[in-house]
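Lab notes, practical 5.
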Amino acid sequence: MARGFCMKYFSLPDNIRAVCDALVSGLKEILVDKLYGVYMYGAAVFPDSGTITDIDSHVILNNSLNDIDRADIFHLYEELSKRFSFSGNNLDVWYILFNDAQKTRPPMHQLKTDMHDEWWALHCAHIRAGRYLTLYGPEPLDIFPVPSWEEITAALDYEIEYIKKNLLYPAYCVLNLCRIIYSFQKRDVVVSKRSNGLWASNLFPQWRPLIEAALNDYEGRATDNEKSRLQADINQFLAFASELIREAR
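Output from the prediction step:
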């Protein structure tokens, strides 16, 4: 694998690397000349991220997918879920046209055409900051534009609304709210959920038990009491975070 410069100081765990190798190999076979590059970002490229539960990446395409391509990719996901502990739900992969990837507006998902990457500005910020790993193809110098703060704010606002609709997953919501608080206060979005959870835990000791419960849940070791706390307190934490974000604007 070619490496983005952020990967000089650490390497992927063997199990994650194996999934990535199999994913790229399958995509090369399915897409052939349509495949431009595969770029991984997210928790896996942060040395302080802890347990890796998802593989986040963008697949950049020279041409649009057709229905056969889509069926073959979904079949590939099924095969990967049989071979590895990662299921299709753990593969958060966006399929984006090369031309769309050069623009700042949220690009359409070529695999799930009813979706657009509303987090595009955040993803571009991570890539531009060097927090990526090139799994296949050239380095992404001609794609992933530099987002403005206004575009980043729009993506963060979309994330807040997404959180409000997904409070049934309180650990995810708590840690992402910590990250959004940090992003608005520091004007920095190139951070991991885990590091922001630890940051918020120290800064807001009244919420430390809840944030620690979220961190433990994310790593699969939360107790029943911690899971109950997450369900009981998520709405209060959302209100607290919303006020901090309003002030930080």
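Observations recorded by the TA: The longest helix spans residues 224-248. DSSP finds eight helices and four strands in the chain.
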